[in-house]
Amino acid sequence: MDIIKLVAVFAIIVVVMRMNKPLYISVTVGSIATALLYGVGSAELLNVLRNGVFGRTTITLVLAFYSITFLQRMLEKRGHLIQAERSLTNIFNSRRVNAMIAPFIIGLLPSAGAVLIASPIVDKAAGDDLTQEEKTFVTSFYRHISEAFLPTYASIILAVNLSGIKMTSFILGMLPMILILFILGYVFYVRKIPKVEKRLEGVDRGYEWKRLIEALWTIILTIVIILVLGVPVHLSVIPVIILSYIINRFKYREIKSMFYTAFEKKLIMTTVVIMVFKELLIETGVIENLPDYFAALAVPPVVIFGLIFFFGTLVAGSQAMIALALPIAIATIPSGGLSLVVFLMSINYIAMQISPTHICLAIITEEHGTSFLSLVRKTMPVLVSFVLIASAYSYLLYTLM
Q: Domain of 88?
């Protein structure tokens, strides 16, 4: 019955979204349906609301989103995004490279707001050769590739710690899958952008590399602070904003309005609603019971955990699924080692690209004026291909161990 209820909840969310309602409304309706179907009591519901709205994770996420949006406004004010796109063009003279590499570089910054920085660069690189839905996919997809393997993300640190796998081994093990992600995005969409055959003449590429670093130094420095010092995103961005204010010679009247424009009401509302929904699903206990439901299937344990990770990530998000299921998977399949972790983290990553609990998807669809369902449709060919390749690759790793 729990699985039927879960399917019903997501069916309700999809139906509301198909009525062209914003994601925060769809998820709110889904949350109400969840509370009713699972019989969540008033005391439990108040606890869920308190944790979802005022929980440390929610507040940290909102602050991170606000700070990175503020930094984005500063980058836009000084034309640094245009400068970065222009330098990439002069170095490679390839709109395809701009569409793939720019969002990947910007995606090194672990914040929901980072996807907005990549959006105008991809939009200009793609021009009229990609549809608005395809631009939405390319921006979101390449911005999130770094989340699959870099230790700048909490989910990666958590997975490595829980599995006991060395960070270096995990990163090296994931590199072939990272290459596959780049290739799949190219094959299905980026190759539609015309190829420029001739390199630009008379371009000082050393100078252009310098200009590119000058344009993106704020993002690079933020990542270094996070990686080296382990400081949360919003606290890492604050000193960078101050430095940018000094180095780029901002005047107070230039940034005064940014204190207000960086506060995106609809996006913050969506963030809070999604966090409440996530807490509500955890409160129902359905996530903890997923292993028992799938254990009844006559299939190998690795397939069962692949299904658990896929559907569990759709429901509760990346970190929640890693925390709940990865230790169980390691204990159930002790011989899996690196191959098992690579497989489950690949599934975890790709499922997040169509999860309604993934706040970045709400942000990028809002930015491009497209729907969540259209993004899911564009992601499906890549998702299916990636799951098949990840399965084959992890099995190869297992046989070589």
A: 57-146+178-192+205-264
